[in-house]
Structures are given as C-alpha cells and as structure tokens.
Amino acid sequence: MVSGLIRHVKVIEDDGNIVEDKMWQVTPSHDKPHGYKYSLAYIVKNKRIIGYDNGESKGDHRHYKEHIEPYQFKDLKKLTEDFYNDIREYKEREL
Predict the structure, then answer these.
(1) In the predicted model, what is the mean pLDDT of residues 59-71?
(2) Which residues pair with 39 in a beta bridge?
(3) Domain-by-domain residue ranges, the chain?
(4) Which of 34, 70, 73, 84 is most exposed by smallest CB count within 10 Å?
C-alpha cells in the first residue's frame, strides 16, 4: 500500500483566522480501519473552534469549541464537506 500525504491546505483568512486540513493515506489499523489519518482545524484568535481528527488511539472524533464527540467517518469527501459546513454555520451564527 502506498502511504503518504494526500492533501494539505492552509488558508489564513483576512481576519487572521486559519483553516487547515491535512489528510494522509496510511496502512489500515485498529484505530484507523479506513486507512486514513486526518487533522482539520478552524482556528479563531489562536484557539481551535472546530476540529476533526483521529489522533493515535483516539478514533474518529469532532471538536466544536470545548465539546468533543465521536465522528462517523464515511469517506474523505464527506469529512471535508462536514468540516467546511461547520465553519460556514459557525460564521453565520457569529455575524
């Protein structure tokens, strides 16, 4: 199996907020049965507001402000859609 970085996007918005997503293909394992490692984060004023990741032995999960909950990983496309939809919804609420 070929492993390695699939995607890395980092955008610094005009207001200084940061959107960053990183995805790797990895050998499937107990904590990454789908064969992907990922870290997606939306940083506002140097604080993670939204995040999706599957850090070592933590499984797929989502951060929203101070709350952490399990995330049902389907595929990278759905992961990306969910992340960017959360950012859009957060921005709409904050205006």
Answers:
(1) 96
(2) 22, 53
(3) 4-94
(4) 70
